[in-house]
Amino acid sequence: MTVTVLARTTAAIVVLAAGAARGTTLWLRPSGLIIITLDTTRADRLPAYGFGGVATPAIDRLAARGVVFDEAVSVAPLTLTAHTSLFTGLYPPNHGVRDNADRALDPAHATLARILHDRGFQTAAFVGSVVLSADRGLSRGFDVYDDGREHGVPPPRRTGSEVVDSARAWIDRLDDKPFFLWVHLYDVHAPQALPVEFRRAYGDRYEGGIAYIDEQIGRLLDALGRRHRLANTVIVVAGDHGESLGEHGEKEHGIFLYESTLHVPLVLCAPDVAATRVAGVTSLVDIFPTVLRLLGVAVPTPRDGVSLVPALTGGPLPERAIYAESMYAGHFGWEHLRMIRHGSFKFIDASKPELYDLDRDPNESHNSADEQIATAVAFQRELMSMDVSTHGDAARLPPERRQALEATGYVGR
User: Are 286 and 402 members of one domain?
Assistant: First the structure.
């Protein structure tokens, strides 16, 4: 037995060395994947991104031993659209779910859960909002999709403790087969209904919500640790979108495409991947191909996302444009917005185009489109090559679904 184990270990070292010689990174294949999505969580309110006003020990531990992506960008300031891109690797124009009130994801689009389920993974999802209910298309491929429904109707929202309690019960039933677990925490989303101890500790409910979901992440990781499933598991913590705390005159999120609602946290831990920070610009669509490659699963094509695996060991990120959009304003008769970003330059296509150099102007306070006309025109032409079809009609939704979304404040009456 000792000889066999030694032979396998030696073979693994040889493979790793050969991979390094070819300029690629190979490692022992993980047997688990957990993706934790943090609703409405902006990167600059986490200590991992330099903020000092909230305690997040669980996320800090992951950041200390994992890879922190400094410039992760959401595809849209809306929950369903952002999650659909995360789990398909496609931008909204290509998967078609461009609004929380849009039609469900077309079954023709392969999801991460479906791909892993077809390869023998145990799969489960536990979500905290009706926006991600099972009929929205993301449940395909999950053995368990827990949206909290009773008598066929999901609640508008669930607390993180409820979501994690259910997830922990599932973890306790895991066998030795590979698994994929998705946990969605909604507590940062307004209106925050926090336990009294978090209300007392934080005068700011938004920051209190972040501290609360961090506690739930800690409970989740403890459960995996008890089953000895952490060491060989890929862990991803990602915000779906951020929150405008009054910047640019916006309250909360959904309309504008400024950094307050697009810049999200992204932390990844994987076996044999050392702690580092990645400074380049990445997108939520990159999570899909990255985790598939880490798990040794072929990535379907075409896909908008790119694998970030080379960057996990200090390699370069590919030069490319990053895309985001907001179709929600159409509910109120306002224009749709689209954004494209190259490095630090960000262009927002609106009736009055906006161009920002985020290195020099991180608060997006000075629109330089009129001063750099050639750059703005080049960005606009690139956007024109993308599909600009409008989102689905919320009126097509069943009345009970529309009422549920109205209760969350997402659909204009």
Answer: no
Please check whether residue 11 lies inside any domain of the structure.
no
Q: Do both 134 and 36 map to the same domain? A: yes
CB 357 within 8 A of CB 344: yes
Per-residue pLDDT of the chain (413 residues; tens, 9 = 90+): 333 332 333 333 333 333 333 334 445 688 999 999 999 999 999 999 999 999 999 999 999 999 999 999 999 999 999 999 999 999 999 999 988 888 889 999 999 999 999 999 999 999 999 999 999 999 999 999 999 998 888 889 999 999 999 999 999 999 989 999 999 999 999 898 899 999 999 989 999 999 999 999 999 999 999 999 999 999 999 999 999 887 876 788 867 899 999 999 999 999 999 999 999 999 999 999 999 999 999 999 889 999 999 999 888 888 899 999 998 877 777 788 999 999 999 999 988 899 999 999 999 889 988 889 988 888 888 888 765 443 333 334 444 444 444 445 554 32
Report the CATH number at residue 379: 3.30.1120.10
181 strand-pairing partners:
34, 124
Which domain covers residue 47, as residue numbers?
32-319
What type of residue is 371? E
For residues 142 and 213, membership in a common domain is answered with: yes
- 223 shares a domain with 166: yes
263 Cα distance to chain centroid: 11
Give the global pTM.
Answer: 0.87
Residues 264, 41 contacting (CB under 8 angstroms): yes
Q: Which residue type, as a one-letter code, is found at position 162?
A: E
Q: What is the spatial distance between Cα 81 and Cα 325, in angstroms, rounded to a whole number?
A: 10
Domain of 112, CATH number, reads 3.40.720.10
Residue 275 is classified by DSSP as -
Q: Which helix (H) or strand (E) holds 277?
A: strand 276-283
